[in-house]
Amino acid sequence: MIIGTEFNGERLVDLFNKLEIATNLSESFWIFTYTLILVLGVTMGVSVIAWLERKVSAGVQQRIGPEYAGPLGIIQSLADGIKLLLKEDVVPAKGNAWLFTAGPAVVVIPVFITYLVIPFGQHIILSDSGIGVFFWIAISSIVPLGLLMAGYGSNNKYSFSGGLRAAAQSISYEIPLAPCVLSISLLSGSLSTVDIVETQSKYGLLGWNLWRQPIGFLAFFISSLAECERLPFDLPEAEEELVAGYQTEYSGIKFGLFYVGSHLNLLVSSPFVAVLYSGGWNSPIPFFENFGQNVSTLSGINESFSILRPVIEVAITLSKSYLYLFISILTRWTLPRVRMDQLLDLGWKFLLPIALGNLLLTASFRILLIN
Q1: Buried b / exposed e across 202-231, counting CB within 10 Å, b at 16+?
Q2: Higher pLDDT, 232 or 200
């Protein structure tokens, strides 16, 4: 009897172990599926940004832009990517081959990781961590190391100078970002990106943090533009001074990875502006979601509305993000490039004091409310 009990116990333990393995395999499969969907979506977003930038710049300069590669030139980015893949990969003879090869990867991979904490909908997020916004700032600070590695490994004074400029610029403009994010976190009472969006969901357009933090919004937007090295802040790769900066010696797909990293960074910062200051997936029309829920309940089509709701949330988030993308692209083709000393003065002498003063005012306001 004792032997039979022990045998049954061992079979139960084996069964539970198999069930646990099956659960882990199922979780791993869904995590891989979600990650693959996100990577494919981000890759398509980069191609859309490249096409949009060419079309907007053509409109600003009264040109046509890409026209023949597909309808309205939509697959021009795909053609450029194939061309870069087929080009020869050249490594400088006296350069550091390991640093030269690792530089583009260090630039691109951290930007992909930051998409883990971007909420495209109420339940459409890969990792709802409690430090979501600071996770983005921490991970994005790795990118300048890749630029510095690329410049140093190229054995070229122009490349190294561009890498140093990129590091100096990133440090100068990441510091004002942190007080702006802290101000939003103080108003929301959380560092989670989902909680920050939820606090803006009560009054539609009027509940956005954009109206409660206008100074912080301007500082955050300018700092994110400089973080992405967009004009007028593209000093690390100024053609007139640095012959394209840290990417002078690169060719082929490694050269393309730097542009992919730049567009990815812009594609990350725009959703963060939408999440922190524009209500994320919430509609700008007040009470729109409650009205939709009431209609679905009365009509008996609750299931179809629950299926459409994530699609609507993603569409609202992407529309807000691409609005800020359009403003960033328009800024590039409107404003002239600044000098390096003006760039650093703007970060250290203007944006940093404004961001710290805004944080002090927000903290004082919160203390008054608590008291």
Answers
A1: eebeebbbbebbeebbebbbbbbbbbbbbb
A2: 200
